[in-house]
What we know:
Blueprint: H1 31-53, H2 61-76, H3 88-96
Helix pairs in contact: 1-2
Amino acid sequence: MATISLRRIKDKLLNGLPSKTVETVSLQLFGKERELYDRMESSSKDFVDYFIFADRLRSRYSFVLFLVLRLRKLCDDSACSQPLENLPILKTLKKTS
C-alpha cells in the first residue's frame, strides 16, 4: 500500500506536494433544504441520545460518525441524502441493538 499512497504527517513535508490548506465555509440553508437538515439532525440526535442512554455509544461510534457525515453531505447536495429510515444500515443496526 505504501508504494501507491501518500500519507501526510503534520511534522513531515514531502517534496513536490503543496502545503496543507484548511478552509472553513459557512452557509445558510433555506426552505426545504433547511427543513430536511433539521429533520435529519433531529433523528441523528435521537440516535445518539439513545446510544448514550443505553450505554452503547462506544460500540456505535462508527454509526455516529456516519450520522455526522450524512449531515455534512446534505450541506453539499440535498439530492444525495436519503432519509435515515430508507438506509440499509439502519435495518442492520436495529437487529443488533
